[in-house]
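Supplementary notes for students who missed Thursday's class. We covered one full example, reproduced here. Read the sequence, then the structure, then the short commentary at the end.
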Amino acid sequence: MACEGNYATIQEFATFWGLGDLETTDEEGLIELCLDIAAGNIHAALAATASCDCTLAPWAAGFLQKLNIIEAGAMYRKRCRQQIDDTDERRMWLEWSTEQLIALRENKLEVCAGETGAAWPSFSWAEQATTEFAAERIIINNKLRNL
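Structure (token representation):
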């Protein structure tokens, strides 16, 4: 995956927001612009953690698609069509997408396959060499961990 292009199509946007069939190319152009702008924010968040050139985890493509659609939907305004009209609802979607972008940027949400985010529990135990056999075990374990 490279950090370029959109994560959702115009038709996926229209389906998600219940717009039905789009009637004009102007409307499609406006949606495409909103998707482009929203995708730019996603690209920036992914680039901050060097996640642009990795293989996505199985769930990540759908998540990035949803994030792209929701952020673009919060920007989308068309007078003659259904849209997010309620200011509180628009704010809610923008807050959700901002939280997700922060999680991506801070590596709390890792989209690369096989990786764990910053919130993944990680610890190691301090081993004590109370006998010479324990010291030998510590040395062997250290060599096995660091091959």
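Commentary. Residues 59 and 111 are 8 Å apart (CA to CA). Residues 10-105 form one domain. If anything here is unclear, bring it to office hours.
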